[in-house]
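Title: Comparing notes on inverse folding

I've been comparing how different people in this forum approach sequence design from structure. To keep things fair, I'm posting one structure and asking everyone to reply with a full sequence. Here's the target:
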């Protein structure tokens, strides 16, 4: 054994002896501390850590637990809420439907609100509108273009239902005729002697363009028929509106445009003129509404569905026509909507009135063309032939009924 190896062995033995002595010393110190420490402290330190507390339940969890414990009471409460909500909705609708709608009057009891209606004078729809507005207390002026139309209005024997002659062929004559209407609105009126003078208030103009036409394919319609239809149904409506725009802007009157929307929304075959006229009027209405909004004038577009007009229904029964299986919307609902739009401070931009108006508007705008074509194919197979000598409004009503019967 060399000296170096002997030295390393001696150093290892010394290190092991020192480590043993240090370990023995720490054991003695630990035993002395354990004996000196109280018993309760030792038990506390030896006890395990308490479990973590769960967070408090949320409101939703509390409600769910309560509902699971009281299922019968929960079902009763839900039934009560459902029936109560339906009952409240029916009550509000009935109250809204039955409430009296009357135009304002002056302190002397005279009528002050003026409404102008432009449309087919003898149309059952137009007739139902101006007769109802006159009964509600408006001074109603009906735009007439011929002496026969003026005579027809005068034969109604209503004091506040008056014709307003307007010659659209001669613009200068039309301006003179409207000048008399402007002066009527500007000057003061007396209901009777010694009564307080009052002025007339132009509240709105109702436009009911005739969009109906005979059924024909595009290749069967001559250029003269296209020209006559666009002139009579589109250009006359635009010209009439332009003539009244100064008065409408001055008095902040409402503009209401009423058009049937079921057939134009679906755009079926053989309705090219009707779809074109409706599209032109819709574009004109949108542009006019955007322009008048800057002046504080509101324009409302009424998209009409299947409406039960008593004059048409009575004539159909007299002719022996079969009634619709789906009940149409009463014309009273349209009359109430027109009144609400006239007196509202901010009327809605679009009004859907009549069965099928909203549904077919959605179908025509969002459903695929193939689905709409299939639907119209079903209608064509079962639709009765259209009588050619009927008025436009009667054809319109029958079209609505056919689509409602087969499409809904």
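Reply #1:
Here's my take.
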């Amino acid at each position: 054994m060399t000296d170096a190896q002997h030295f390393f062995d001696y150093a290892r033995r010394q290190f092991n002896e020192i480590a043993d002595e240090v370990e023995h010393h720490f054991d003695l110190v630990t035993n002395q501390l354990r004996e000196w420490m109280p018993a309760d402290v030792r038990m506390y330190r030896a006890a395990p850590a308490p479990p973590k507390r769960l967070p408090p339940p949320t409101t939703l969890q509390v409600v769910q637990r309560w509902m699971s414990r009281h299922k019968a009471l929960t079902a009763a409460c839900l039934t009560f809420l459902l029936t109560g909500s339906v009952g409240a909705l029916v009550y509000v609708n009935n109250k809204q439907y039955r409430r009296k709608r009357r135009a304002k009057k002056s302190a002397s009891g005279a009528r002050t609100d003026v409404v102008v209606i432009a449309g087919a004078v003898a149309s059952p729809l137009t007739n139902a509108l101006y007769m109802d507005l006159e009964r509600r207390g408006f001074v109603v002026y009906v735009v007439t273009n011929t002496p026969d139309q003026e005579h027809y209005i005068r034969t109604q024997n209503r004091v506040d239902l008056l014709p307003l002659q307007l010659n659209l062929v001669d613009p200068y004559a039309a301006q003179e005729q409207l000048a008399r209407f402007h002066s009527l609105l500007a000057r003061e009126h007396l209901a009777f002697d010694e009564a307080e003078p009052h002025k007339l208030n132009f509240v709105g103009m109702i436009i009911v363009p005739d969009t109906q036409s005979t059924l024909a394919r595009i290749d069967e319609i001559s250029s003269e028929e296209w020209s006559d239809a666009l002139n009579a149904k589109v250009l006359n409506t635009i010209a009439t509106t332009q003539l009244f725009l100064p008065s409408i802007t001055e008095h902040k009157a409402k503009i209401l445009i009423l058009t049937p929307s079921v057939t134009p929304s679906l755009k079926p075959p053989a309705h090219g003129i009707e779809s074109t006229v409706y599209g032109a009027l819709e574009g004109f209405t949108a542009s006019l509404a955007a322009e008048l909004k800057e002046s504080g004038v509101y324009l409302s577009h009424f998209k009409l569905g299947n409406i039960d007009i008593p004059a048409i229904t009575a004539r159909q029964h007299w002719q022996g026509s079969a009634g619709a299986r789906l009940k149409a919307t009463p014309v009273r609902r349209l009359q109430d909507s027109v009144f609400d739009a006239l007196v509202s401070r901010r009327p809605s931009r679009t009004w859907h009135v009549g069965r099928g108006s909203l549904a077919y508007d959605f179908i025509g705008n969002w459903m695929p063309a193939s689905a709409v074509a299939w639907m119209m194919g079903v209608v064509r197979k079962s639709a009765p032939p259209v009588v050619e000598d009927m008025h436009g409004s009667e054809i319109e009503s029958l079209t609505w009924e056919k689509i409602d019967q087969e499409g809904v």
